[in-house]
Design goal:
Blueprint lengths: L20 H13 L4 E9 L1 H14 L7 H15 L5 E3 L4 E3 L5 E3 L1 E3 L2 E3 L2 E2 L7 H17 L12 E5 L18 E15 L2 E15 L5 H17 L4
Parallel strand pairs: 4-8, 8-9
Antiparallel strand pairs: 1-10, 2-3, 4-7, 5-6, 9-10
Helix pairs in contact: 3-4, 3-5
InterPro entries: 2-oxoacid_DH_actylTfrase, 2-oxoacid_DH_E2_comp, CAT-like_dom_sf
GO cellular component, one term: cytoplasm
Cofactor: (R)-lipoate
């Protein structure tokens, strides 16, 4: 019986990845986004109560619904955007359009690239509903079964590298949106609480925003309020 042999290129052979199809679309979008006057801000979040909330909701819902930390982050982002509408916006040629709905794009990594399906009206959904919808959209994006409409009308984007060892990164804004939030891993670190040094699970939040639409101070207020909401699990 003949056995298939994997092709291994010679050491000196030239290999290329054509900038066509999905890779070409990503290249064009990223090139356009790179022209935006962007600013980066980062903050660390103590995820102690957040992790406890994930476990508590998972026990309540049972194995039929997989609860993730990302679902809590998405709801917290949506509620905080309601309080900071300048970040829930689109930058157009001569105006900044504040969007009436909070529709959050969730970056999904594929073998051949990156897709960003959109969760609708996230501030009006429960964490359990967000978790279920996130799974549905991610599975559809990977299978290529989502409609074109599933990728449209996003007002803000979240990209999560928490499953990797990355502690910091600066994602590129999904234009014409004016901001994107990068989430990095939860890692145990020595932190000061009061006058004591304790070990706590810390998570990184990395906000990139369009300075034409938002100035540094209001963006920092958004990020700080998001940190407080995640650390207290208030309203989640």
């Amino acid at each position: 019986m003949n056995q298939a042999v994997a092709f291994v290129p010679d050491a000196g052979e030239r290999r290329v990845v054509p900038l066509a199809g999905m890779r070409g679309a990503i290249a064009r979008t990223m090139s356009a986004a790179w022209q935006v006057p962007r600013v980066a801000q980062s903050i660390e979040v103590d995820a102690t109560r957040l992790e406890a909330a994930v476990q508590a909701l998972q026990q309540q819902l049972g194995p039929q619904c997989k609860v993730t930390l990302t679902a809590f982050v998405l709801r917290a982002v949506a509620l905080t955007l309601r309080e900071h509408p300048r970040l829930n916006a689109r930058a157009l040629e001569k105006e900044i359009e504040l969007m009436p709905d909070v529709n959050i794009g969730l970056a999904v990594s594929l073998d051949e690239g990156l897709m960003v399906p959109v969760l609708r009206n996230v501030d009006a959904q429960s964490v359990a509903d967000i978790a279920a919808e996130s799974r549905r959209l991610a599975a559809g994006a990977r299978a290529g079964t989502l409609s074109a409409g599933s990728y449209q009308h996003g007002t803000f984007t979240v990209t999560n590298l928490g499953m990797t060892g990355i502690d910091s990164f600066t994602p590129i804004i999904n234009v014409p949106q004016v901001a994107i939030l990068g989430v990095t891993r939860v890692a145990k670190r020595a932190v000061v609480k009061g006058d004591s040094i304790v070990v706590a699970p810390m998570m990184g939040l990395h906000l990139i925003f369009d300075h034409r639409a938002v100035d540094g101070y209001p963006a920092a207020r958004f990020l700080t309020d998001l940190k407080v909401r995640l650390e207290t699990v208030e309203g989640l």
